[in-house]
């Protein structure tokens, strides 16, 4: 009995110990969860770290003339560790008002008192990652580092700076769709998208720590793995030509109240695109680049396609330019469908040359019908020999697939051949049409349009792009000569006489196409696409160009009246600025004349460089960064321009670019009026600089 009691006692003791142990565990869990939960949660947060990607600075995109057309500007997010150990209560109390005052003056978004309250509240709440300001530029950041507390040093002042990169287009709308953009997981657009692999560089890594409230802050000021900046793209675009093309197009779109328009200018021998403008109406009288219709929109081209029809027939020796065709009625019926001319030619029978230069639909379709009605596949095969019907493999994405019908297709009808010959029942992009015309100007060699010349990293060429030849010879020299004769005749005697007034010869073809109205086809409210495609100078082609204007509504809709004037304006301005294609201008150098030019007040190194290139001697031993010049016999004398550090500089006599450089680096904002050199400044030279003040400049 004693043994049994002893055993039970031991069991009870064991159960009691286990119960107490279990109770202790449950109690501890409850204590950790509900009593000390917040403490341990904060500690867990403080021990949580991870690496995040640090974006590299994207490479810039330059035009072929060296202008910057897309670049990344650093933009900073500024935060503050309000409870950094070196910021004691004494330091914070003494300097928080001064810091708030400086922040208020710099950003002008809150009063000094509001900043003070926000900083004190953040400190009382134990914040380690207080947001001071987003979208801070470099000059603001530089000034920020001089503020009370922040000027205590890199780590002691609690200043946390995160750099982000903002993509900007210095020339705004100029070729914006061709320059494009890149957004992750979105179909790439333009040069930014096509060359993102080069432009984007390599991301870096930064160690981040999660603090109270689930906010992540950097563990160190410096990134752990530095990002590698992207490469630069040298495009074929020319900013000056692009500006001329876009403004000429915009002016005509407004005058004609048109829905949209496109201009493309290509260098004949290389295929380099010098200008590409795509404007679309977004509001009455307002146009923007919304879509790159030049490469992405395949439409029925209309009469500009007649060149292809003539090339095929002449190459196949189906007719010659002196052969005649009857167009006396101004219309012809093909299997119950009526083909019409926009205007009836006076003669009953006319030559094929007249048919082309007057853009006769009837003449073209009758000739092609007679030549290929028994073998339409041969005509289509001839079009394919010209490189039509397939993509060209452009350097930028988005090229639309061209299409024309083939005999045997479900939608090949008895009337398809005559309508195909004049640019209907098919689709092609403006750039594909231009490439065909460019091949004629290039003596039969078809080259692919080129948008990028080379890729550079830190100024060194990484990859260059040669001209891509699509076809060495699209037609024989015989056909080529006749095609050039036809294109020149359109301007001299035909539907584009408006271009005859230019001081240099132009060759090309007008086009006027009806735009299908959905299921109604070409019935109901008719809409038109007016175009002109050609090259210049016709006797020694340097550039080819196409102009398309969609849905003009001010009664004019023919290519010769609507698009040809835009072609002329762009061509005239390009010709006037290109000495190598303008034989009437003899180059004259300053050093061959007795007149000595005097430069504006400006940067000494650049001024000396120009005078040295002109062979003009300079006197004066000043080493000043900024100088002004004066004529001295047959030389130029330079004198020093004093630029004080803490006072408003004297910019009178300077060009606008140099004046803005000096004033804005001094912390002033500039507003200019007029042209020429600076003749007046609203804040006198020598006055004390107040950061952020505006100074007005008068130029004359």
Automatic annotation (TrEMBL):
Gene Ontology annotations for the cellular component aspect, listed alphabetically: plasma membrane
Domain PASTA as annotated: residue spans: 642-700
InterPro entries the record matches: Beta-lactam/transpept, Beta-lactam/transpept-like, PASTA_dom, PBP_dimer, PBP_dimer_sf, PCN-bd_Tpept
KW Cell membrane (keyword) present: no
Coiled-coil stretches noted in the UniProt entry, renumbered to this chain: none
Cross-referenced SUPFAM superfamilies: beta-lactamase/transpeptidase-like, Penicillin binding protein dimerisation domain, Penicillin-binding protein 2x (pbp-2x), c-terminal domain
Transmembrane segments: 12-30
PROSITE patterns from the UniProt entry: PASTA (PS51178)
Keyword tRNA processing on entry: no
Cell compartment(s), UniProt: Membrane
Keyword list, A-Z: Carboxypeptidase, Cell cycle, Cell division, Hydrolase, Membrane, Protease, Transmembrane, Transmembrane helix
GO biological process, one term: cell wall organization
Protein name per UniProt: Cell division protein FtsI/penicillin-binding protein 2
MF terms in GO: carboxypeptidase activity; penicillin binding
Record organism: Solitalea canadensis (strain ATCC 29591 / DSM 3403 / JCM 21819 / LMG 8368 / NBRC 15130 / NCIMB 12057 / USAM 9D)
């Amino acid at each position: 009995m004693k043994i049994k009691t002893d055993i039970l006692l031991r069991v009870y003791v064991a159960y009691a110990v286990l119960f107490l142990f279990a109770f202790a565990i449950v109690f501890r869990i409850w204590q950790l969860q509900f009593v000390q939960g917040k403490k341990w949660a904060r500690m867990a947060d403080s021990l949580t770290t991870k690496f995040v990607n640090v974006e590299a600075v994207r490479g810039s995109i330059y035009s072929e003339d060296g202008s910057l057309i897309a670049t990344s500007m650093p933009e900073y997010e500024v935060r503050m560790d309000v409870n950094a150990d070196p910021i004691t209560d004494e330091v914070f109390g003494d300097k928080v008002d001064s810091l708030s005052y400086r922040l208020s003056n710099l950003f002008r978004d809150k009063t000094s008192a509001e900043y003070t309250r926000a900083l004190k509240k953040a400190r009382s709440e134990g914040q380690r990652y207080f947001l001071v300001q987003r979208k801070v530029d470099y000059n603001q950041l530089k000034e920020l580092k001089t503020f009370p507390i922040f000027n205590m040093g890199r780590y002691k002042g609690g200043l946390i700076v995160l750099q982000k990169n903002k993509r900007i287009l210095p020339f705004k709308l100029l070729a914006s769709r061709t320059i494009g953009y890149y957004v992750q997981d979105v179909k790439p657009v333009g040069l930014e998208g096509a060359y993102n692999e080069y432009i984007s560089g390599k991301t870096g890594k930064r160690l981040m720590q999660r603090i109270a409230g689930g906010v992540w802050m950097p563990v160190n000021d410096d990134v752990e793995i530095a990002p590698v900046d992207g490469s630069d793209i040298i495009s074929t675009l020319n900013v000056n030509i692009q500006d001329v093309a876009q403004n000429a197009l915009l002016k005509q779109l407004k005058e004609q109240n048109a829905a949209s328009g496109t201009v493309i200018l290509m260098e004949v021998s290389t295929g380099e695109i010098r200008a590409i403008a795509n404007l679309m109406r977004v509001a009455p009288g307002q146009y923007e680049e919304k879509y790159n219709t030049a490469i992405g929109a395949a439409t029925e081209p209309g009469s500009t396609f007649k060149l292809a029809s003539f090339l095929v027939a002449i190459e196949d020796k189906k007719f010659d330019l002196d052969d005649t065709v009857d167009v006396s009625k101004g219309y012809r019926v093909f299997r119950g469908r009526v083909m019409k001319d926009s205007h009836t030619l006076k003669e009953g029978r006319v030559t094929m040359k007249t048919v082309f230069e007057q853009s006769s639909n009837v003449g073209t379709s009758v000739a092609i019908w007679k030549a290929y009605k028994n073998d339409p596949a041969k005509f289509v095969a001839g079009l394919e020999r010209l490189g039509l019907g397939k993509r060209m493999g452009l350097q930028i994405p988005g090229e639309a697939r061209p299409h024309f019908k083939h005999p045997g297709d479900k939608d090949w009808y008895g009337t398809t051949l005559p309508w195909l010959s004049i640019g209907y029942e098919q689709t092609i992009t403006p750039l594909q049409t231009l490439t065909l015309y460019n091949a004629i100007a290039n003596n039969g060699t078809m080259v692919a349009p080129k948008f990028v010349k080379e890729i550079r990293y830190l100024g060194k060429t990484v990859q260059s792009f040669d001209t891509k030849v699509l076809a060495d010879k699209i037609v024989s020299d015989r056909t080529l000569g006749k095609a050039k004769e036809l294109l020149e005749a359109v301007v001299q005697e035909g539907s584009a006489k408006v271009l005859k007034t230019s001081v240099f010869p132009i060759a090309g073809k007008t086009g006027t196409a009806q735009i299908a109205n959905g299921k109604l086809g070409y019935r109901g409210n008719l809409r038109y696409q007016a175009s002109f495609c050609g090259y210049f100078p016709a006797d020694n082609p340097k550039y080819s160009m196409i102009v398309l204007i969609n849905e003009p509504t001010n009664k004019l809709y023919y290519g010769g009246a609507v698009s040809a004037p835009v072609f002329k304006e762009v061509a005239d301005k390009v010709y006037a600025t290109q000495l190598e294609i303008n034989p009437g201008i003899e180059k004259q150098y300053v050093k061959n004349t007795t007149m000595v030019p005097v430069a504006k007040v400006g940067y000494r190194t650049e001024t000396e460089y120009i005078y040295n290139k002109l062979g003009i001697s300079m006197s004066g031993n000043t080493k000043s960064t900024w100088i002004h010049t004066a004529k001295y016999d047959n030389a130029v004398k330079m004198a020093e321009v004093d630029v004080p550090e803490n006072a408003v500089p004297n910019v009178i006599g300077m060009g606008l670019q140099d004046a803005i450089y000096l004033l804005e680096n001094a912390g002033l904002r500039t507003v200019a009026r007029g042209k020429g050199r600076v003749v007046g400044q609203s804040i006198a030279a020598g006055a004390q600089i107040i950061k952020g003040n505006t100074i007005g400049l008068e130029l004359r």
